[in-house]
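Researcher: Following up on the earlier apo prediction. This time include the ligand. It's coenzyme A, with the SMILES given after the sequence.
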Amino acid sequence: MDHKIIVREKKETDNDQIENILNKNFGENRHQRNVYLYRKKSPIKGLSLVSCLNEDSNTVIGTITFYRTLVSNINCLLLGPLAVSEFFQGKGFGKILVRKGLEIAKLKNETICFVSGKYNYYKEFDFLKLSSKNLIINTTGDFTYGELLVKELKKDCINLLPLKAQLLPEK
Ligand SMILES: CC(C)(COP(=O)(O)OP(=O)(O)OC[C@H]1O[C@@H](n2cnc3c(N)ncnc32)[C@H](O)[C@@H]1OP(=O)(O)O)[C@@H](O)C(=O)NCCC(=O)NCCS
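Model: Understood. Below is the ligand-bound prediction.
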Protein backbone atom coordinates (compact mmCIF):
# COMPACT_ATOMS: atom_id res chain seq x y z
CA MET A 1 0.00 0.00 0.00
CA ASP A 2 1.16 3.56 -0.78
CA HIS A 3 1.50 5.63 2.41
CA LYS A 4 2.74 8.77 0.71
CA ILE A 5 1.42 12.02 2.20
CA ILE A 6 0.03 14.51 -0.29
CA VAL A 7 -0.99 18.15 0.11
CA ARG A 8 -3.81 19.67 -1.88
CA GLU A 9 -5.97 22.78 -1.77
CA LYS A 10 -9.00 22.57 0.48
CA LYS A 11 -12.35 21.90 -1.24
CA GLU A 12 -15.84 22.93 -0.07
CA THR A 13 -16.60 19.27 0.52
CA ASP A 14 -13.74 19.05 3.08
CA ASN A 15 -15.40 21.54 5.45
CA ASP A 16 -17.12 19.04 7.76
CA GLN A 17 -13.98 16.94 8.13
CA ILE A 18 -11.90 20.06 8.87
CA GLU A 19 -14.41 21.29 11.48
CA ASN A 20 -14.25 17.89 13.10
CA ILE A 21 -10.43 17.91 13.29
CA LEU A 22 -10.42 21.47 14.70
CA ASN A 23 -13.15 20.67 17.24
CA LYS A 24 -11.28 17.61 18.46
CA ASN A 25 -7.96 19.47 18.79
CA PHE A 26 -9.05 22.88 20.02
CA GLY A 27 -12.53 22.25 21.43
CA GLU A 28 -15.92 23.36 20.16
CA ASN A 29 -15.63 26.70 21.96
CA ARG A 30 -12.39 27.56 20.15
CA HIS A 31 -14.06 30.49 18.35
CA GLN A 32 -14.04 32.37 21.65
CA ARG A 33 -10.24 32.41 21.73
CA ASN A 34 -8.61 35.75 20.97
CA VAL A 35 -6.87 34.44 17.87
CA TYR A 36 -10.28 34.10 16.20
CA LEU A 37 -10.51 37.93 16.20
CA TYR A 38 -7.92 37.61 13.44
CA ARG A 39 -9.99 35.08 11.52
CA LYS A 40 -13.14 37.07 10.86
CA LYS A 41 -12.36 37.84 7.21
CA SER A 42 -11.82 35.18 4.55
CA PRO A 43 -8.60 33.19 4.68
CA ILE A 44 -5.91 33.94 2.09
CA LYS A 45 -6.87 32.44 -1.25
CA GLY A 46 -4.83 29.44 -2.32
CA LEU A 47 -3.40 28.95 1.16
CA SER A 48 -6.06 26.75 2.72
CA LEU A 49 -4.51 23.33 2.38
CA VAL A 50 -5.13 19.82 3.59
CA SER A 51 -2.86 16.81 3.89
CA CYS A 52 -4.09 13.33 3.06
CA LEU A 53 -2.82 9.90 2.21
CA ASN A 54 -2.23 9.50 -1.51
CA GLU A 55 -4.32 6.33 -1.47
CA ASP A 56 -7.35 8.22 -0.08
CA SER A 57 -7.20 11.87 -1.03
CA ASN A 58 -10.80 12.54 0.04
CA THR A 59 -10.08 11.85 3.69
CA VAL A 60 -8.62 14.94 5.36
CA ILE A 61 -5.91 14.20 7.92
CA GLY A 62 -4.28 17.60 8.38
CA THR A 63 -5.46 21.17 7.82
CA ILE A 64 -3.74 24.56 7.60
CA THR A 65 -5.09 28.04 6.92
CA PHE A 66 -3.49 31.48 6.70
CA TYR A 67 -5.13 34.85 7.37
CA ARG A 68 -4.13 38.42 6.63
CA THR A 69 -2.80 40.44 9.54
CA LEU A 70 -1.41 43.97 9.64
CA VAL A 71 1.56 45.41 11.49
CA SER A 72 1.77 49.17 11.01
CA ASN A 73 0.01 48.77 7.67
CA ILE A 74 2.50 46.12 6.52
CA ASN A 75 0.55 43.20 5.10
CA CYS A 76 1.63 40.03 6.87
CA LEU A 77 0.32 36.49 7.13
CA LEU A 78 -0.91 34.79 10.27
CA LEU A 79 -0.54 31.01 10.08
CA GLY A 80 -3.31 28.98 11.64
CA PRO A 81 -5.22 27.04 12.52
CA LEU A 82 -2.95 24.04 11.95
CA ALA A 83 -4.16 20.68 13.19
CA VAL A 84 -3.84 17.00 12.45
CA SER A 85 -6.31 14.23 13.12
CA GLU A 86 -5.35 12.75 16.50
CA PHE A 87 -4.69 9.20 15.32
CA PHE A 88 -2.19 10.45 12.71
CA GLN A 89 -0.25 12.97 14.82
CA GLY A 90 3.54 12.83 14.79
CA LYS A 91 3.73 11.24 11.33
CA GLY A 92 4.59 14.29 9.25
CA PHE A 93 1.10 15.45 8.21
CA GLY A 94 1.60 18.77 10.02
CA LYS A 95 5.10 19.63 8.86
CA ILE A 96 4.32 18.99 5.20
CA LEU A 97 1.45 21.50 5.44
CA VAL A 98 3.64 24.17 7.03
CA ARG A 99 6.39 23.61 4.46
CA LYS A 100 4.02 23.73 1.48
CA GLY A 101 2.06 26.69 2.87
CA LEU A 102 5.21 28.77 3.33
CA GLU A 103 6.42 27.76 -0.13
CA ILE A 104 3.17 28.95 -1.73
CA ALA A 105 3.22 32.14 0.36
CA LYS A 106 6.67 32.96 -1.02
CA LEU A 107 5.45 32.38 -4.57
CA LYS A 108 2.62 34.82 -3.83
CA ASN A 109 5.22 37.44 -2.89
CA GLU A 110 4.16 37.52 0.75
CA THR A 111 6.85 39.03 2.94
CA ILE A 112 6.33 38.16 6.60
CA CYS A 113 4.47 35.39 8.39
CA PHE A 114 3.49 35.22 12.06
CA VAL A 115 2.33 32.23 14.04
CA SER A 116 1.29 31.73 17.61
CA GLY A 117 2.85 28.40 18.45
CA LYS A 118 5.59 26.34 20.00
CA TYR A 119 9.07 27.55 19.04
CA ASN A 120 10.42 23.99 19.09
CA TYR A 121 7.96 23.00 16.37
CA TYR A 122 8.35 26.07 14.15
CA LYS A 123 12.10 26.69 14.44
CA GLU A 124 12.83 24.18 11.68
CA PHE A 125 10.91 26.50 9.32
CA ASP A 126 13.08 29.44 10.44
CA PHE A 127 10.43 31.07 12.59
CA LEU A 128 12.11 33.32 15.14
CA LYS A 129 11.23 34.44 18.63
CA LEU A 130 10.35 38.14 18.56
CA SER A 131 12.90 38.75 21.30
CA SER A 132 15.73 37.57 19.02
CA LYS A 133 14.95 40.59 16.81
CA ASN A 134 14.16 42.93 19.72
CA LEU A 135 10.57 43.13 18.51
CA ILE A 136 7.67 43.85 20.80
CA ILE A 137 4.47 43.07 18.94
CA ASN A 138 1.30 43.02 20.96
CA THR A 139 -1.77 41.06 19.98
CA THR A 140 -5.42 41.86 20.66
CA GLY A 141 -5.71 39.73 23.78
CA ASP A 142 -3.35 36.89 24.62
CA PHE A 143 -2.98 33.99 22.22
CA THR A 144 -3.14 30.76 24.15
CA TYR A 145 -1.24 28.33 21.91
CA GLY A 146 2.37 29.27 22.48
CA GLU A 147 4.17 32.51 21.81
CA LEU A 148 4.04 34.78 18.80
CA LEU A 149 6.80 33.86 16.33
CA VAL A 150 7.84 35.54 13.10
CA LYS A 151 9.39 34.39 9.82
CA GLU A 152 10.51 36.45 6.87
CA LEU A 153 9.46 35.10 3.50
CA LYS A 154 11.59 37.59 1.60
CA LYS A 155 15.15 38.40 2.59
CA ASP A 156 15.52 41.22 5.13
CA CYS A 157 11.79 42.00 5.20
CA ILE A 158 11.78 41.49 8.93
CA ASN A 159 13.71 44.77 9.19
CA LEU A 160 10.64 46.59 7.85
CA LEU A 161 8.78 45.86 11.08
CA PRO A 162 8.79 48.61 13.70
CA LEU A 163 10.42 47.48 16.95
CA LYS A 164 7.21 48.11 18.89
CA ALA A 165 3.87 47.58 17.20
CA GLN A 166 0.45 46.00 17.31
CA LEU A 167 -0.62 42.93 15.35
CA LEU A 168 -4.00 43.85 13.91
CA PRO A 169 -6.72 41.84 12.19
CA GLU A 170 -7.51 42.60 8.55
CA LYS A 171 -9.83 45.62 8.35
C1 LIG B 1 0.99 20.30 16.33
C2 LIG B 1 0.53 19.43 15.17
C3 LIG B 1 -0.14 20.29 14.09
C4 LIG B 1 1.79 18.79 14.56
O1 LIG B 1 1.45 18.02 13.45
P1 LIG B 1 1.86 16.48 13.41
O2 LIG B 1 1.52 15.94 12.09
O3 LIG B 1 1.31 15.80 14.62
O4 LIG B 1 3.42 16.56 13.64
P2 LIG B 1 4.54 16.30 12.55
O5 LIG B 1 4.63 14.83 12.29
O6 LIG B 1 4.41 17.19 11.42
O7 LIG B 1 5.80 16.74 13.37
C5 LIG B 1 6.24 15.95 14.45
C6 LIG B 1 7.01 16.82 15.37
O8 LIG B 1 6.08 17.65 16.05
C7 LIG B 1 6.18 17.45 17.44
N1 LIG B 1 4.80 17.45 17.94
C8 LIG B 1 4.15 18.51 18.40
N2 LIG B 1 2.94 18.17 18.84
C9 LIG B 1 2.81 16.85 18.64
C10 LIG B 1 1.78 15.92 18.87
N3 LIG B 1 0.62 16.26 19.46
N4 LIG B 1 1.99 14.65 18.50
C11 LIG B 1 3.14 14.31 17.93
N5 LIG B 1 4.14 15.14 17.69
C12 LIG B 1 3.97 16.40 18.03
C13 LIG B 1 6.89 16.16 17.65
O9 LIG B 1 7.66 16.26 18.83
C14 LIG B 1 7.73 15.99 16.41
O10 LIG B 1 9.00 16.56 16.61
P3 LIG B 1 10.31 16.00 15.83
O11 LIG B 1 10.09 16.22 14.36
O12 LIG B 1 11.41 16.83 16.38
O13 LIG B 1 10.37 14.55 16.18
C15 LIG B 1 -0.45 18.31 15.60
O14 LIG B 1 0.20 17.46 16.51
C16 LIG B 1 -1.72 18.83 16.23
O15 LIG B 1 -2.72 18.97 15.55
N6 LIG B 1 -1.68 19.13 17.52
C17 LIG B 1 -2.84 19.66 18.23
C18 LIG B 1 -3.23 21.03 17.75
C19 LIG B 1 -2.09 22.03 17.84
O16 LIG B 1 -1.43 22.13 18.86
N7 LIG B 1 -1.88 22.77 16.74
C20 LIG B 1 -0.79 23.72 16.62
C21 LIG B 1 -1.20 25.05 17.06
S1 LIG B 1 0.05 26.21 16.62
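Model: The chain has three helices and nine strands.
Researcher: Noted. I'll compare it with the apo version next.
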